[in-house]
Design a protein that fits this description.
The complex is a heterodimer of chains A (about 120) and B (about 160).
Chain A (H helix, E strand, L loop, with lengths): L4 E5 L2 E5 L3 E2 L1 H17 L4 E5 L5 E2 L1 H15 L5 E4 L3 H10 L6 E3 L2 H10 L1
Parallel strand pairs in A: 2-4, 3-5, 4-6, 6-7
Antiparallel strand pairs in A: 1-2
Helix pairs in contact in A: 1-2
Chain B lengths: L3 E9 L4 H12 L7 H22 L6 E9 L2 E8 L7 H4 L16 H8 L2 E7 L3 E9 L2 H16 L1
Antiparallel strand pairs in B: 1-2, 2-3, 3-5, 4-5
Classes of the chains: A alpha/beta (about 120), B alpha+beta (about 160).
C-alpha cells in the first residue's frame, strides 16, 4: 500500500492521499502533517483526494483539525480530486462551509497564491 | 431475485481491521448488484460502526468485534457487536457532532452517517457489557425499479 505523500511548495503543504482516509490512517496523517506544519511554518494546506477512494467521519476530523490549526494565522484548507462518495461526505457534514474545492491540486495552489 | 445468505466474522479491535470489515461486507453484497452509491453508503456505515467499537467500546484494549451479515431478498442486514464498555447515554451519543473523545479529533458524525446511509439503525447497549448495532438497507432497488419500469413499458407497448 502506498503511503500518503507530503509536498511543500513555498508555504503550502500538499497532502496527497493515496488510498482510504479512515480512522486507521487518520492517526498517522495527523501526526505527520502537524510536524511539517510546525517545522516549515506552513500557511495553507491542500488535501488532494485524486487517488483516494474512501473517506469516513475520521477524515472530517483530520481536515477540521488542520483547519483549526492554521486558521488563526490566516491560512486556508482547500481540497481537490474528490470522487462522488467523498464529495457527498463533505456535503452532508457541512465541510464546504469553511473549505473550498477545486478540480486539481494545481488549481488549488493557483487559487491560494492569487488570493 | 430471491437470495438468502449469511456470514459471520470475528476480528480483533485493531484499526487496521476497519478496511477489512468494509471490504468483506462489500464483497458479500455483490450478488445483489449494488450501485456504486449503495456500496459506498454501506462501506461508510460499516466503517463507522467498527471504528466506534475500537475507539469507544474497547478504548485502548484489544477485544473481539463480531460482524454478522444477512441477505434476505434484496435487503442487507449487518450486526456489529462488541463486549466493550457500552454507551451510557445512547441518544446523546447519536446527536450529530457530539463526541465523547474530542481529543482524538473525532467529528461526532459516526452515528449520523450510519443513520443517513442506511435505511434503518438500531443501537442496543449496556454499560459494562457491550454494544450491538444493527443496520439494514435495501440494495439494488434502483436497478429493480428500472427493470420494473421497463417491464411495464414493454407490456403497454
Amino acid at each position: 500500500m502506498e503511503e500518503t505523500k507530503y509536498e511543500i511548495v513555498r508555504r503550502v503543504l500538499i497532502i496527497r492521499l493515496q488510498k482510504d482516509l479512515d480512522h486507521h490512517c487518520a492517526v498517522n496523517i495527523r501526526e505527520k502533517a502537524d510536524k511539517i506544519i510546525d517545522r516549515y511554518y506552513i500557511k495553507h494546506i491542500i488535501f488532494d483526494f485524486s487517488k483516494a477512494k474512501f473517506m469516513d467521519s475520521a477524515g472530517i476530523g483530520v481536515i477540521m483539525g488542520r483547519y483549526k490549526k492554521i486558521k488563526y494565522s490566516g491560512g486556508k484548507v482547500v481540497v481537490s480530486g474528490l470522487n462522488k462518495s467523498i464529495d457527498r461526505i463533505f456535503n452532508i457534514s457541512g465541510l464546504y462551509k469553511v473549505i473550498d474545492k477545486y478540480d486539481t491540486a494545481d488549481i488549488c495552489l493557483q487559487k491560494i497564491e492569487s488570493a | 431475485m430471491n437470495i438468502e445468505n449469511k456470514m459471520t466474522i470475528e476480528f480483533e479491535s485493531r484499526s487496521i481491521n476497519e478496511s477489512l470489515a468494509r471490504t468483506v461486507v462489500a464483497a458479500f453484497i455483490s450478488p445483489l448488484d449494488p450501485t456504486i452509491e449503495e456500496l459506498s453508503d454501506i462501506r461508510t456505515a460499516v466503517s463507522e460502526a467498527v471504528t466506534n467499537s475500537i475507539i469507544h467500546g474497547y478504548t485502548d484494549e484489544i477485544g473481539i468485534i463480531k460482524m454478522e451479515c444477512f441477505i434476505v431478498g434484496n435487503e442487507l442486514s449487518v450486526e456489529i457487536s462488541d463486549l466493550g464498555s457500552g454507551i451510557e447515554d445512547i441518544s446523546r451519543a447519536m446527536e450529530p457532532l457530539y463526541t465523547s473523545r474530542p481529543e482524538l479529533e473525532r467529528s461526532g458524525m459516526g452515528f449520523t452517517f450510519m443513520e443517513v446511509f442506511m435505511d434503518n439503525l438500531e443501537v442496543v447497549s449496556v454499560p459494562g457489557v457491550g454494544t450491538n448495532i444493527t443496520m439494514r438497507k435495501r440494495v439494488g432497488s434502483v436497478k429493480e425499479m428500472q427493470e420494473y419500469t421497463q417491464e411495464i413499458n414493454h407490456n403497454v407497448l
